[in-house]
Amino acid sequence: MNSFTKLHFSTSQLDLYYIRTSIFNALCKSLPMFKGDLLDIGCGKMPYKEYILENAAVDSYLGLDIENALIYDETVKPDVTWDGVQMPFKDASFDTAFGTEVLEHCPEPDVTLKEVYRVLKSDGVFFFTVPFLWNLHEAPNDYYRYTPFALELHLKEAGFQDIELYATGGWHASMAQMLGLWVKRSPMSSLKKKIGATCLKPIIKALIKWDSKQKVELKDGQMITGLYGTAIKK
Question: Where are the beta strands (DSSP E) in 51-133?
Answer without folding.
Answer: 57-66, 80-82, 94-100, 120-131
